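TICKET: design request
STATUS: open
ATTACHED STRUCTURE:
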């Protein structure tokens, strides 16, 4: 499986599936979820919420509407209850479940953001390492192109550095 790091807006990426950094309610607010909601230009939020809530680390799958993808996989790395903070295990489970959901649907390409590292408060570099390790350890039948997307310059450099260490 080819793994790479790209910089930019996840909503501008082209792939079979895009991963949303979701909370357990699947309500699409700001950050990655907001970018995908705006890019979808359709009732993706209502579609996602109708499939929830999901357990922490769980996923739900919707269509991608106007995004350049077939699916959006809503990966719940953060709880929409309690302190709302992601954990290493919730990030690991959400990443693994997103990879599996894409592979089960025959997806060959997937774009994943830094799950749990925004409003959920998890350390960015540590979260990137967990995601890269989960991607490296995944053995699916269909996925051949997994891209880890980072929006800003600093985030991109961190993900690139971590990915080089983990995927080398």
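STATUS: resolved
RESOLUTION: sequence designed for all positions
ATTACHED SEQUENCE:
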């Amino acid at each position: 499986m080819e793994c790479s790091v790209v910089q930019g807006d996840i909503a501008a990426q082209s792939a079979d599936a895009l991963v949303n950094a979701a909370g357990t309610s699947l309500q699409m607010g700001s950050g990655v979820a907001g970018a995908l909601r705006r890019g979808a230009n359709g009732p993706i939020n209502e579609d996602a919420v109708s499939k929830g809530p999901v357990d922490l680390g769980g996923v739900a799958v919707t269509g991608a509407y106007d995004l350049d993808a077939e699916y959006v996989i809503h990966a719940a790395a953060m709880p929409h209850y309690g302190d709302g903070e992601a954990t290493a295990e919730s990030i690991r489970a959400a990443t693994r479940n997103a990879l599996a959901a894409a592979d089960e649907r025959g997806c060959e390409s997937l774009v994943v953001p830094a799950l749990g590292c925004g409003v959920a408060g998890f350390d960015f570099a540590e979260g990137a390492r967990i995601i890269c390790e989960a991607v490296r350890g995944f053995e699916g039948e269909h996925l051949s192109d997994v891209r880890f997307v980072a929006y800003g310059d600093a985030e991109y450099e961190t993900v690139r550095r971590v990915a080089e260490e983990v995927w080398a």
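CLOSING REMARK: The longest strand covers residues 71-78. The chain has a mean pLDDT of 96.
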